[in-house]
Amino acid sequence: MRKIMGKSTHRKSALVSMGVRCALSAVLVFANFPTIAFAQSSCPGIHVKIPNIKNSTGNIACGIFESPEGFPNKFLGSAKAIIIRKIQKTKAQCVFSDIPPGTYAIAVIHDENMNGELDTNWLGVPKEGYGFSNTTVDEFGAPAFSAASFPYDGQNIDLTIRLNY
What is the rounded CA–CA span in Å between residue 34 and residue 37? Predict the structure, then answer.
């Protein structure tokens, strides 16, 4: 019994130590955000870079989905997590942490008018930028979850999602 408790305490201590290092790294990254916004992080998570934003107006919204339900356009009701970021010099980054191993797909929109949705014209064609993980956009619409999905093992993964306008 004593050995089990000792191992458990050691694991908790190691996790707390790793959490403190990641938090300290995050503070250092955000303190120098403009210069190292695209630096690689050592904290476990899914790091999404969006490099080709057409302008710095509005926000970037990243949604991570764990199933086809609601993918890609039902962010609020179906995404496991949503991150909203300000755009810095036509670039942005979304970092999903505390995501368990599994299969995921990510959808990104450039919400230029900050109304919380991807604006479309009367035909349904997007008027704002959008992009997806693991795939390019099909000219006939958004990809299926299976086409945009990727495996995540709980460690670091760096993705780049280029927006289409």
Answer: 6
Full-prediction pTM beyond 0.85?
no
CA angle 13, 18, 20 (to 5 degrees): 95
DSSP symbols for 32-63: THHHHTTPPP-SSEEEEEE---S-SSSEEEEE
What end-to-end distance do the CA atoms of the chain give, in Å? 61
Split the chain (165 residues) into runs of 10 and give each run's mean pLDDT. 39 37 39 42 85 95 96 89 96 96 96 91 91 76 91 95 93
Question: If you ran DSSP here, which 8-state letter would residue 85 be given?
Answer: E
Beta strands 156-160 and 45-50: pairing type?
A: parallel
